[in-house]
Description:
Layout: E1 3-12, H1 19-37, E2 41-49, H2 53-62, H3 66-83, E3 90-93, H4 97-112, E4 116-126, E5 131-133, E6 152-161, H5 167-176, E7 181-182, H6 184-193, E8 201-202, E9 204-206, E10 215-216, E11 219-224, H7 226-231, H8 233-236, H9 244-250, E12 254-259, H10 263-276, E13 284-288, E14 291-292, H11 309-315, H12 318-328, E15 334-335, H13 338-368, H14 380-394, H15 402-426, H16 428-431, H17 438-459, H18 464-473
Parallel strand pairs: 1-2, 1-12, 2-3, 7-13, 12-13, 14-15
Antiparallel strand pairs: 4-5, 4-6, 6-8, 9-11, 10-11
5'-O-[(L-methionyl)-sulphamoyl]adenosine binds next to β1, α1, α7 and β12.
Amino acid sequence: MNRRYITTPIYYVNADPHIGHAHTSTMADVLKKMSQRDGSEVFMTTGTDEHGQKNQDAAEKSGLGITHYLDQQSARFRAAFDRLGVEYDMWVRTTHESHKAAVRHVLEKLFAHGVLVKKRYEGLYCVGCEMFKKTSDLDEAGRCPDHLAAPELLTEENYFLRLSLHQDWLVTFLQENPDWIQPEQYRNEVLGMLSEPLDDMCISRPKSRVSLGVELPFDPGFVAYVWFDALINYLSNLGWPGDEARVEAWWPNAVHLMAKDIIKTHCIYWPIMLRALDVPMPRRCLVHGYWVGEGNVKMSKTIGNVVVPDAVVDTFSADTLRFYLARNMRSSDSPISVELVRRCHNGDLVNNLGNLYSRVVKLTARDYGSAVPECPELHDEDQALLDSVLELVREGRGEFSFSAVTQLAQRILDAADLTNRHVNVTAPWELAKDPESSERVVSVLVACLESVRLIFEAGYPLLPNTATRALNNMNVPWTAETAKSWEPEARAISPGAMLGEDTMLFERVRDAG
Ligand code: MSP
């Protein structure tokens, strides 16, 4: 059986979860369900990154005490993802003992290999990024472009990993594996970063400045640098080091999901760390763009255009947010606002998908007492509709990328559009008036019911709650288990099957407040 190990970034807990964090973890869940549908076995992880300076600063400011603060914040992320139906197989916390043991193992191994050097260093540090910056990384005002704050000048003694040792190897690796970073624009960006000599990676922080972290086993005056520590979660989640069978089963199929902000750490630091440890490379890195406020204005509390996942779920539904995210993310920046979600909800979900479902279920109720009529052979035009829908839901199976997610959302809408138009054109309520057309009415209705079934079966990874509800109301047995290894079939609804009374899948939202 094919296996896939899907990871998301682990998120800093210094602030509450927002739409960006919700996005990557939700896409991990969508890709998990799409892979399972195609017959793969999946292990998916997400969670929180709980060490480092900015978490420490936030914990101190909260006055709650470090452990209490970390527990509370990690639980908030978990609750936000649970509400969105993210079915992770493991909730990662870098404060877990097993993870910290793996970090210590890496430190000891690299120290024993003699690849860590201790030296005094002066550099500009951005706490927001938890990274040293070059002046060329800053904007004209000398600020970090992501955090709009000037980095601090730090002079410290620290341990460093010489990235230049494996720089040439990494360039060759990326040239020989052109799809290791997807989409290509980010591969080009990484190759651009590699066209200049790499600075050494500072892998420690003096405890006098940062105490929240894993102490270096060979020097108790220091803790591991938060990024060095966090990246190792991708291995420690599999029981590395120690559980070789699990590592061998999953690691070669590891796919790291992330936004474009963290490609340097994932596509340069991480492969070089792995190389220094003699660990083979994961399978792939998939990169998406940023969510920005409507009109491409960066989200900020001051402007008041921050989209809070919980609020969107309250006003619409978890499936609405999942669908909006899936359908609208691009590899560059994409806009989001409550108003844009409202338009997608009312347009794509209420008017198109929800309306189609409600029409065919109500027609079956009105004309056949909700029992699906028998129709062994469909009329040619109705068969043609079903064939087109089948083709749409079969397309793109087996693909594993963010664009495959967007395309799935688009195909679901296209199939619903097509079926709605078929209902309009054939007008079964008109045909029903003529007794000579009774066979055709049955054929139209059955073809549309089968189309709707296919649309919800295919759309399950995006709309798991709605799809399960709609299918079960159509008397189609559908559970998380049956969603695995799905094969689209033209005909699956048994004649005589009784449809339920649930016809309103999405409620129109007039004013989202
Ligand atoms: N802790 C590190 C990651 C360590 S992984 C070994 C970190 N944390 S973070 O909290 O800043 O999360 C960054 C990630 O959150 C992005 O890569 C992306 O997955 C998600 N997003 C945060 N803001 C986002 C947007 N505005 N838009 C899309 N995704 C964004 O970096």
